[in-house]
Amino acid sequence: MSTLTDNFKIPELLCPAGDLTRLKAAVDFGADAVYLAGEEFGMRTAATNFGEGDLREGIKYAHDHGVKVHITCNTLPHNAEMPRLPAFLELINDLGADAIIAADLGTMGLVKKHAPKCDLHVSVQSGIVNYETARAFHDFGAQRIVVARELSLDEISEIRAKTPRQLEIEAFAHGAMCVSFSARCLLSSYMTGRDANRGDCAQSCRWSYSLMEEKRPGEYYDITETDKGTYILNANDLCMAPYLDKMTAAGVDSIKIEGRAKSHYYVAVTTNAYRGALDSLKANPLNWQVPLWVNEELNKISHRNYSTGFYFGTPKNEQTYKSAGYVRDYTVAAIVDDYSDGMLSVIMKNKFAVGQEFDCLEPHCAPFTFTVSQMFNDKKERIEVAPHPMMKVLIPFDRPLKKGSLLRMKSE
User: Fold this and answer.
1) Are 367 and 273 in contact (CB under 8 A)?
2) Which are the contacts of 374, defined by CB distance < 8 A and separation ≥ 6?
3) Which pLDDT score is estimated for 304?
4) Least packed by Cβ within 10 Å: which of 34, 91, 313, 404?
5) Do the Cβ atoms of 219 and 302 come closer than 8 Å?
6) Count of C-beta atoms within a 10 Å radius of residue 109
7) Are 234 and 241 in contact (CB under 8 A)?
8) Per-residue pLDDT tens for 327-343?
9) Is the pLDDT at 185 greater than 80, yes or no?
10) Is residue 120 within 8 Å of residue 99, measured between CB atoms?
């Protein structure tokens, strides 16, 4: 495996944006680029996604902060959808998006024709696992490939060594893993009629399964030690934060966080953590260890058990069989909106009271804790409890906190 040298380049941090609020969180907390979808042709129909107005506002907000915008057109569109695709690509081109992520060859051809100002990025759905395929996509006009999740770092390093340097390599570093190859799955479509290859996955791999013998219908046999069946397809989540130096050394140009269907809180925390990790790597490349607070932050979001996927070889026991649920240890109590006259103005999200200890996440900063000793309503009347979502609460504090900072409390 390759090692870092003094002249290495820190990878781009590419973060998910399921809607305009999450786009702004990714930008504010340190993304170099965001990826998002319009109302069609994206692989996450569960996300709110972007209409024309939000696309226009989101691209402007990102560009005003020096952040690039990549638009996903990575479904496998059917005949009936194709007549609508050129107009959407022309809209993206006119709005000034930086890149379009596509998986379908026909879509890629239309991108080149109808969105010539946008770079072409080849989606993970294309299943790129070797340098010849990478070269072929480069010859076709792609500026970037998103390599398959099933590759090791050694394999990525070989692709980097045997492809033109101007072809960028993007790889996932964090988030949910799909049990099917490069997320190309028929399970959801077969069981529910919801096509995973068109952004409508029912998450069938997260369901509980039991064994039934064909001549004994209705008699179900547990195949693990639990009494609820087994989650035999339930892959653990990916977390490569401690190994960003190895991803960089392998030649990865962009590290990607999964999660366009995840919450504003998830986007803020993961973006801030990976930004901190990459900045730390840049400052000390030859003797780097991930800061302890980064690992702690990634355990404060909703997640399954973490793994390193295929990056260090074929994984063993990288599934959670007892439950498909998430680990959830923290709740957002309020979001900082302003600071004036020695008081934080926050918008309440979940009920809290005087005496509450907050774990504060401020953009581009390591987290810290403080305890609420007093608080007031928007009329500056003292209150003991903040009971109503979206109410404005004033909290005395000794310095401003950046707008959008999150005040968290540990779940009971």
Assistant:
1) no
2) 354, 382, 395, 396
3) 76
4) 313
5) no
6) 14
7) no
8) 667 889 999 999 999 99
9) no
10) yes
Show the CA angle centred on residue 180, arms to residues 177 and 182, nearest 5°.
70
Amino acid at 29: F
Q: Look at residue 47 in the predicted model and tell me its pLDDT.
A: 56
In Å, what is the CA distance from 167 to each residue of 71, 93, 182, 265, 293? 18, 21, 20, 33, 34
Distance CA 140, CA 112 (A): 10
Of residues 130, 120, 123, the one with CA closest to residue 103? 123
The CB density around residue 316, as the number of other CB atoms within 10 Å, is 7
* 120 C-beta neighbours (distance < 10 Å), count: 23
Domains located in the chain, CATH noted: 12-180+235-307 (3.20.20.70), 330-410 (2.40.30.10)
Token pair of 107, please? Answer: 């879509």
Q: What percent of the chain has pLDDT over 90?
A: 67
CA distances from 165 to 6, 11, 25, 173, 379 (A): 18, 14, 32, 21, 60
Indicate the burial class of 338 (C-beta count within 10 angstroms; 0-12, 13-18, 19 or more).
middle
More confident position, 27 or 214: 27
**Length reported for the chain:** 412
Indicate the SS3 state at residue 149: coil
Distance CA 156, CA 172 (A): 12
Question: Rounded to an integer, what distance in angstroms lies between the CA atom of residue 76 and that of residue 86?
Answer: 15
361 by Cβ neighbours in 10 Å (0-12 / 13-18 / 19+) ranks as: buried
What pairs with residue 345 in β-bridges?
A: 338, 394
Q: Report CA-CA distances (Å) from 267 to 177, 201, 256, 305, 407.
A: 17, 21, 12, 18, 15
Q: Beta strand 385-386 with 352-353: parallel, antiparallel or unpaired?
A: antiparallel
**Nearest alpha-carbon partner for 106 in 80, 127, 90, 85:** 85
Helical ranges in 250-353 per DSSP H: 264-283, 292-298
CB 359 within 8 A of CB 265: no
What single DSSP character describes residue 52? Answer: H
> Which of 233, 169, 159, 170 is closest to 201 using CA atoms?
233
Tell me the Cα Rg of the chain. Answer: 23
Q: Which tokens sit at 54?
A: 């939000």
Q: Which residue has the tokens 């090692």?
A: 3
CB 153 within 8 A of CB 138: no
Decide if 219 contacts 213 (C-beta within 8 A): yes
> Token match 């490069």: residue?
182
